[in-house]
Amino acid sequence: MIRSFSTVHHYRVLKSSQLRLLYKRLITTANAGNNLIKPLHQNTAVHVTTSISSNASHSVKTLTSTSTSTTPSQTSLASHQSKHFIQTKTRTLGKSQGRVVILGSGWAGFRLIRDLDKKNYDVSVVSPRNHFVFTPLLASTSVGTLEFRCITEPVREYSRTTSFYEAYCDKIDVKNQVIHCTSSIDNPERKTFSLDYDQLIISVGAYSKTFGIPGVKEYAYFLKEVNDAIKIRKRLIDCFEYASQPGLTDKEKEDRLHFVVVGGGPTGVEFSAELYDFIAGDLSRLYPDLMGKTRMTLFDVAPTILGAFDSHLADYASRKFRRKGIQIKTQRQVEKVEKDHLVIQGEGAVPYGLLVWSTGLMQNPLVESFTSAAKDKSGQRILTDGHLHVIDNGSGTPFPNIYAVGDCATIKDNDLPATAQVASQKAGYLAKTLNKIAKKGDDFPEGKEFKFRNNGMMAYIGSHEALVDLSAVHNWAKMSGHLSWLLWRSAYISKSVSVRNKMLIAYHW
């Protein structure tokens, strides 16, 4: 038992390990630039002295208040600990690099949330949704092959040490380093707020492209979010329930059971394949009398579907679709969309029960409002340099603390497709670079620009068959059929984020 010392003032005696920990925290805080700990008097400093008790055989440390100045050892330690601290606008306790604001929780934003070093960065996330969506399997959820929870990952689960705000970013004030946001939560009066930033990462993604065609936004269904898949599933069942009611003519039933997909890219093709499997495998047992009146049509403005794939694989998918009774109508242009029909140039009105629109991407409203940033030739995407810095529209030089990744951005003189693997690789590169800067105190490494590694493409075409195009890796790495389907499923299970979702996907499949 260690006794208290008899001095002019009475002090609480603490264990040596506790005092060492307290001392370390005091030094870290005092030299972090926060000025949060101040002495009680102008000439008073806090330090630790060592005394020896006459009744104890070992030394203990007591916390005393004296008028001495900081010791040389403290100065050396402070200098070492603040070596990699930078001048920031939003100084946070223990965060040497200040605040990083990430806009978006898609493929790029979600990876940055997971990979950024939270010890050195105060990470804040602004996104209109509080989860990440594994978009390659979104078509499967729309027809019930998978449940929605299989492809979603909650943002807060991976950002317990970060701040998350469910909101839209409306405006970026580059001069004052402030973003202005509006809450995305449905309320009569949506709350607005502003956030300061030291570094800003724009990964807001893109919206579905409508080409300004009248009626598309009002009557077509998109496939970008979980809510879209929920609406499609409900509409699909409603069409069959409506057609099963008495008093309808055959023409009315056929019109309601005509399912149209506009867009012959991977999303449109995979949804068509999933829809065919759902109708042929499940709905045929529930509505056997309606199968003869059910039909599917795939429209595309291009000469062929799956234009990004190898031509032999695209032809293989077209043949398979036609054998299943899925009509493919290429080089068709939609002029107008109404509640129960769409108008095709040269063909006239085409009735439908469900219309799914998947024709590419258009700019996010934030990208349009961000006039300080340079844009690509189409004016749809933010232009960045090879280090992913946003390029100033006025001077043509990159902003040192603003980055753009994902579908909303493209690299100058290196235009890459707006795909999940491009967004994920850009985010990985940026997170690795920023973590290196925080740890080693280096400037942004010159010369080490982002390089995209093409891992190939895959697409499901129904009936347990898929396409695998790895020609970017090897010229002969092209496959189709059932073996490709196994590779397709294996790849998507392995790419899923959490172990929980890997198990859920395998269970439902």
How would you characterize this protein structure?
The structure is a single chain. The chain has 509 residues and is α/β, with parallel strands linked by helices. It has 13 helices and 26 strands. It has helices at residues 16-30, 72-81, 107-115, 138-142, 216-219, 226-243, 250-256, 266-286, 311-323, 365-369, 420-440, 482-495, 499-508, and strands spanning 45-52, 59-66, 99-103, 122-127, 131-133, 152-154, 163-173, 178-183, 192-196, 199-202, 207-208, 258-262, 295-300, 326-330, 334-337, 341-344, 348-351, 354-357, 361-362, 382-384, 389-391, 398-404, 409-411, 457-462, 465-469, 478-481. The strands form 8 sheets. Strands 9-8-7-4-3-10-22-21 form an 8-stranded mixed β-sheet. Strands 14-13-12-18 form a 4-stranded parallel β-sheet. The chain has a 3-stranded antiparallel β-sheet with strand order 15-16-17, with no helix packed on it. Strand 8 and strand 9 form a beta hairpin. Helix 3 (107-115) runs parallel beside helix 11 and helix 6 (226-243) runs antiparallel to helix 7. It is globular. It starts with 15 loop residues before the first helix and ends with a helix. Mean pLDDT is 84; it is low at 1-19 and 26-87.
